[in-house]
Amino acid sequence: MTAEVNVEEFSSGFLAIEITGVASAANAGQGSILNPYGEDVHILRGYLVPSVVSAGAANLSIGVTTAAAAATDLLNAAAMADVSVVLPLNCIAHDPGAKTVVAGPAIWSDDAYLTFTASASLVGFVGVLYLEILRKI
Question: Between the CA of residue 87 and those of 24, 39, 120, 128, what are the distances in Å?
């Protein structure tokens, strides 16, 4: 997967990361992005919006860690063959019935990476990951 920040979407309130699947099943083999803010931020919400589904039966994990590692803070082994190009995939599900304080699911440290790891080839997959970020003022 190639993953890069879409600068035009950067000011929309969500950080938009355009992703295109590749054949790698290595840790962070689908891509990694260094925190573009230069400071620690909280990732509050995330939505994966596929426009083309991969022909393969790979699972995708997305999380915050070092450049060459796998993480599951945002998405944990979601089956990409089952996603819809009609509906966004909620990467961070909160339980509104829990009635507890909901902390951000991931702190993206200034020197950490958002990594994309697949269990098999994701060739053919195309989509956008939208992240709602909370920054200090």
Answer: 26, 32, 23, 12
